[in-house]
Amino acid sequence: MAAGKAEASGPGAEDALSLRSKLLLGLGQGVEGIWITVGGFYLNKFFLETCCIEPALVAIIQLCVGLFDAFNDTLIGALSDKTHTRFGRRRPWLLFGGPFLAVAYVCVWNRLPLDTPQEMKMLYYLASYMAVSLGLTSIAVQIGALVPELTSDYHERTIAAGFRVVGGNACGVVFAVLHTGLVGTASRPEDFLVSAVICASCIWIFSWTVFCGIQERPPKQETIPSTGLLNEISLALRNKAFCYVCLMYVAGPTAVTLMQSNIALFCKYILKDESILIMILPIVQGIGLLMIPVWVLIGHKTSKRHVYMIGGCILALAMAFLNFIADTTAAVVAAGIIGVALAVPYLVPVSMLPDVVEADEEMTGRRREGILAGLFTTSLKLSATAANVVTNFTLEQAGYVAPSSTCDGSLTGIAPLAVTDTQPEAVMQAMRWLVGPVPAALVVLATFAAWRFPITPEVHARRLAAKGDKIGARQEADVQEA
Question: How many domains does the chain have?
């Protein structure tokens, strides 16, 4: 027991991650951060008010991509476990995934002509969005799978998760502010394309930088043949800890994505000041970024479960408050409070996944980082899917009206700001619920899952101690046999 605790609290030379590795993991997470932040805040509004696609068709696009995500994340995770090249198991996916994602990213932000039939728009953006999903999976799953391969120390993994979330948030803040500055409130199609080219170029560069800089470690045990994809998934779902961490990674980010995907519409139609988003976005993301080291420190002093329980309460209360605000000052205050706990729904589950890998190895006898990371990443993508599908079907049912300033061809040549866009009262009320009470309820659910998560620092230390004893006994038997 003592040995286990020592290992959990103070990493040895083999388990200590270098600063370079941590920074590279953060840079790799930045690829996903660009998409999550820029896409989270702007993609739904882009589809509705720049591409002028009907909300029901946008919901179908999001639903199809979500189902596709559930397939490709798990498949790519399993394939990466079986990949054997001179570059390692994970790095080849970074090499080819980077340029593929960059091209797909530009395609999804390219607005088709307004007179394009709605069905053709749906098919084009569905194909482009699926390509983004495939490219993002090829990178994000590998970044997640690398952490448990690089270190088995409990606190090192928390620190690595901190670097990853900092990297993702920092890139998200920078590129979301860049996108906001380029696009502004006029939302011209050419501005979206310029932003897309800049973001895509950086995605490509980041992916190849991680490929060149990271060093993989070979698996620590002999490879045991897998038993088929469905059985591999079934084994993962029998792991209680894995189910809880996936529930956290669905419910928490779904709440955040609901808020993100509707906040631009909320500012435009509820607060009557679309430009306030330029202030709210860096406040939320910036405070969230600054708070990450604080949450990592709290996790080091207590546990990851406690971090989520504290942060979840703060986040749920702040989100619930959004339902009642009607002016920009209150919106800025709420944004600051949300920023305090914004990283928690991402930081804690990401730091818990490597601990789950050990529990899975104890249960199956195999290291299955790839498929677990694939299923885990699927959880995050399902959260975005659920948020956007619920948003668009709700807006459709409430009677959402496409804005005349950007979707009425007869107004060509008139400055968008000279046209006043309005929505029915039912749509306004739906927007309030989608940024406030519904996300707050989901955060409460995720906090409950964190409270029930069974792997504490003490449990992890005992598991590592037992694993060390088993390896020692095996080595001693090998020596005696020799």
Answer: 1
